[in-house]
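Form P-L/3: holo structure prediction, ligand 2-acetamido-2-deoxy-beta-D-glucopyranose.
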Amino acid sequence: MPRIRARHVILCTAVVLWIYYFLPTDEALPSLPRYGQDSSRRGTAALARYMNDPAAVPNITAKKSSFDWSSVNFTYPPKLTPKLPAPVAERPRIQHRFKADSKAVAAIQNQRRDEVKRVFRRSWASYKRRAWMKDALKPISGDYVDQFSGWAATLVDSLDTLWLMGLRDDFYEAVEAVATIDFGHSTAPTVNTFETCIRYLGGLLAAYDLSGHHVLREKAIEVGDLLYAGFNTENGMPVDFINFQVAKKGSGLTVESRVVSASPGTITLEFSRLSQITSDDKYYAAVSQVMDVFHRGQNETKLPGMWPMFVSMSGKDVVSGYQFSIGGNADSLYEYLPKAHALLGSAEASSKKYEIMARKFMDTAMENLFFQPMIPDGYDILVSGNCDVLDDGPHLDPESEHLSCFIGGLYALGGRLFDSKEYLDAGVKLARGCAYAYRSFPTGMMPERYNMAMCPGSDRFAYCPWNQTHFDVEASKRAEYKPHLPKGFTTAKDPRYILRPEAIESVFVLWRITGDSWWREIAWEMFEAVAKATETPYANAAVLDVTVLGSEKEDYMESFWLAETLKYFYLCFADTDLISLDDFVLNTEAHPFRLVKG
Ligand SMILES: *[C@@H]1O[C@H](CO)[C@@H](O)[C@H](O)[C@H]1NC(C)=O
Ligand SMILES: *[C@@H]1O[C@H](CO)[C@@H](O)[C@H](O)[C@H]1NC(C)=O
Ligand SMILES: *[C@@H]1O[C@H](CO)[C@@H](O)[C@H](O)[C@H]1NC(C)=O
Ligand SMILES: *[C@@H]1O[C@H](CO)[C@@H](O)[C@H](O)[C@H]1NC(C)=O
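OUTPUT (holo model):
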């Protein structure tokens, strides 16, 4: 009875629509504006209102945390030198000199940007309704979870995205909430230094840099002083986990003997920027002690120029290990070297250090980690693998991961900072490699971790034609090989996509640096794939298997979905002056810090 069924459908649809529109607003998902309805003009008008009229900025006062971290009496006070270097007068130009888009092209980009904003607002609305002031929304159940000490990680992480999308009312509503966060109390007995630094301190600093609101500065100082208490150790190195109660007493903390190198290596930008905005050198001085250890050890490791993935901060040993990678565990240690140079300039010796470390690592990684995989369609790409240095020398394993995808953008940035075509070209090919991986899988997204077959021969950058015999040999070495994988991939060891940003991060940087519109097109392709595959009733969720269509999802939405992934997508289609790379450097959580000019 097709006709009756059709009528049923119409009736049901009408009921559903009725429910959708007439349920109380705190129950139904808001119907968010589609293309065009929420035009950029509204955002611009809101911006102008807040920028030109101080009275439009709500009067918000920060509530002091229940413990004053600046009052800790240190058993081991950190050194107070070196002093922050003076701002540099000149920096090399980073961004391409863009000309205005034609009207037709601009209209397409505006539509795309608004679509990204729509997806952001949908996730934000659900966070607001179901998980407000909690660390993260669970996007399938609509529940929430506190896994980062309970200081509203998603809220703090999203502040600058709200600002740059022009959502000023939501922004100030969030600032009012930030004003009440109590950094004197944690939901867990220990606090993770790395996550607290990149998400909370980074988020507050960037939101302050964009809006200038004093509450954000005050709260940034509170978190900064909490993290600074993690330096109350016998040898001046920071702890990986801060024991909250011991840290308050000031009796001293015990530095761990084995940590991933990214943990102590990812404080420089946040602490340097905090010193800049407070004119208090102590943060910069404390982190400088750490980076001096890395600087001294750089040429003494088993792969000179890079540091092992695991280091011992208790023994100040950053040279003994044998595993090397620019991926997870190590990534942002490397990321922060060129970026610290960008933030601090190299007017004086202590920041020249970052240029030296950056160039040296970039040369070493290029020589030992990157390779052209054997792929069926002849694209000129590079992928970053892992290198183990054994008794008989370095061994490159062609295993890569989503986390490594930031490296293309970083080499492109390095290419501009250090005037090197070689770095820039490598950056283009590395970023292309990640875009290629997205395209290869049926969902349009790349797996969290995977292997490819390297081209045979000694020149790892050289192209090679497809050789099925060679591929079969490589695939047979991998227990995880599955025949349904795209040609060229020998495993999808971890087949999830967990809403990560690194691939689109590099696409964004390449777009801004080269001005080649191919990057904007690939960004849109990636966005459509990601938005579709990750959508849930409330927001967006991690996908368990990108190698098949219709995979199950996981009830989890990392705060970096709003802080990074959607921000980078948005910026790919926005005005190229919005967060220009000549005015800002972004931390590893995509929080833009303003570059001070001397
Ligand atoms: C802002 O609020 C504080 C405390 O409520 C008050 O003391 C102050 O006068 C207000 N400032 C302005 C400009 O309204
Ligand atoms: C640090 O010492 C001063 C002076 O003895 C004291 O007033 C203050 O309460 C101490 N701070 C903490 C956090 O115990
Ligand atoms: C490490 O080697 C590079 C040259 O390859 C040099 O510029 C740098 O100063 C060296 N670092 C140290 C700490 O000696
Ligand atoms: C293809 O690879 C196999 C196995 O490595 C090798 O023996 C053969 O010579 C290669 N064929 C060509 C045409 O290069």
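COMMENT: The longest strand covers residues 489-494.
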